[in-house]
């Protein structure tokens, strides 16, 4: 049976770069995001360039009913998935109390709920088939609280801790779990989150993806591309929690228009 890497958030940024890096290594892919036309174009291009099979599925993973439908399709077992990359994610910025609740709900539904349910469904399928690999995308934001982006930082702390916990639980079933913690990366993320960041000098998603596929081959637990990003993840341990909150709050407020 043909095996596939299932990548969410594959229409853009880090998910797209992961799709390209994996296709380059001969992996067949199933791409998931909301923008059907974009997915179709990407699937065609990757097939032509790398000669791999690329399927795609347009799905709003933040809609619990659509997510359930998609998970049922996966459970039907028509496609064997040996790698799950949970890259779909969004951010919000600004004072929590002033946010439209729907924006915070969308973030929680996508960053936490969809990611966790995909791990549950695909993790079970992998355990039955004797193994597989899961990569969840957190962030360097996972390592400290982030005033003015409180829900985003907390969602990424969830992804980091959930992934590390799951890793220990499922290793005997042959399922490997890693978590990627990128620093600021040149993607549409900042525009979507309405953060006013000049992305020109940031790490490219292709650099992040190359580092990540190499680390995945070594089954690294926590993958943080870039020396300064690794330093940043250590810094909350070197200063008091009060100071860590002040520093991340200062940075977030600077880039947040509200
Ligand atoms: N860029 C950074 O600096 C950075 C740093 C650390 C961590 N991260 C994390 O990296 C991950 C990827 O983000 P990115 O930077 O690559 O941003 P991006 O370019 O905006 O990509 C986000 C992806 O998620 C998909 N998506 C958004 N909402 C969705 C939904 N409701 N259902 C299904 N797919 C959805 C988008 O596709 P559609 O619009 O087609 O649905 C897109 O493919 C996120 O989890 C983010 O938190 C990013």
UniProtKB/TrEMBL annotation:
<keyword id="KW-0560">Oxidoreductase</keyword>
<dbReference type="InterPro" id="IPR002347">
    <property type="entry name" value="SDR_fam"/>
</dbReference>
<dbReference type="InterPro" id="IPR036291">
    <property type="entry name" value="NAD(P)-bd_dom_sf"/>
</dbReference>
<dbReference type="Pfam" id="PF00106">
    <property type="entry name" value="adh_short"/>
</dbReference>
<protein>
    <recommendedName>
        <fullName>Short-chain dehydrogenase/reductase SDR</fullName>
    </recommendedName>
</protein>
<comment type="similarity">
    <text>Belongs to the short-chain dehydrogenases/reductases (SDR) family.</text>
</comment>
């Amino acid at each position: 049976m043909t095996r596939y890497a299932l990548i969410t958030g594959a229409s853009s940024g880090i998910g797209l770069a992961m799709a390209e890096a994996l296709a380059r290594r001969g992996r067949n892919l199933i791409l998931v995001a909301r923008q059907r036309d974009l997915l179709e174009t990407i699937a065609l291009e990757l097939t032509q360039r790398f000669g791999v099979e690329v399927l795609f599925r347009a799905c709003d993973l933040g809609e619990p009913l659509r997510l359930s439908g998609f998970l049922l399709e996966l459970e039907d077992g028509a496609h064997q998935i040996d790698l799950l990359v949970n890259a779909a994610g969004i951010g919000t910025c600004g004072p929590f109390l002033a946010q439209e609740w729907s924006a915070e709900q969308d973030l929680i539904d996508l960053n936490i709920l969809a990611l966790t349910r995909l791990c549950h469904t695909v993790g079970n399928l992998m355990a039955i088939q004797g193994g597989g690999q899961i990569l969840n995308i957190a962030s360097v934001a996972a390592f400290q609280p982030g005033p003015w982006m409180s829900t985003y930082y907390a969602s990424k702390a969830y992804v980091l801790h959930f992934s590390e916990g799951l890793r220990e639980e499922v290793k005997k079933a042959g399922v490997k779990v890693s978590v990627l913690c990128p620093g600021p990366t040149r993607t549409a993320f900042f525009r979507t989150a309405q953060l006013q960041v000049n992305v020109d000098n940031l790490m490219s998603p292709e650099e992040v993806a190359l580092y990540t596929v190499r680390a995945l081959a070594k089954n690294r637990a926590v993958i943080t591309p870039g020396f300064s990003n690794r330093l940043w993840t250590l810094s909350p341990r070197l200063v008091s929690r009060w100071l860590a909150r002040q520093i991340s709050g200062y940075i977030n407020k600077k880039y947040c228009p509200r």
